[in-house]
Automatic annotation (TrEMBL):
Domain named Gla: residues: 64-96
Protein name (Swiss-Prot/TrEMBL): Bone Gla protein
Main location: secreted
Record's subcellular location: Secreted
Alphabetized UniProt keyword annotations: Biomineralization, Calcium, Disulfide bond, Gamma-carboxyglutamic acid, Metal-binding, Secreted, Signal
Pfam families: BGLAP_C
Family: Belongs to the osteocalcin/matrix Gla protein family.
Signal sequence annotation: 1-20
Length: 100
């Protein structure tokens, strides 16, 4: 009976705290306009950097793929992952970038 009372009390406290937080978030003043959220394209491109994908144009020889699969077969998690996503993705997930 004490456990039931404690659970009921904790659930009421949680409910009261959740409704108090949601009421506070609704009362935020509308001082921000839609223009505050959008930035012009030339301004946005000045602080956003594009990253190049590593190994994007890497073509692997059959010998290199065999080497990767032998390394990956020794790790059970890598071996299981290679069955679903492929040997290259599994190797990169577990061992990092492919050495060239």
């Amino acid at each position: 009976m004490k456990t039931f009372t404690a659970i009921l009390l904790l659930s009421l406290i949680t409910l009261a705290l959740c409704t108090a937080d949601s009421d506070a978030s609704l009362s935020v003043p509308d001082s921000q306009s839609v223009e505050d959220f959008f930035v012009k394209r030339d301004v946005a491109s000045s602080f956003v950097t594009r990253r190049k994908k590593r190994n994007a144009d890497l073509t692997l020889s059959p010998q290199k793929l065999e080497s990767l699969s032998e390394v990956c077969e020794l790790n059970t998690a890598c071996n299981d992952l290679s069955d679903t996503v492929g040997i290259v993705a599994a190797y990169q997930k577990h061992f990092g970038p492919i050495p060239v």
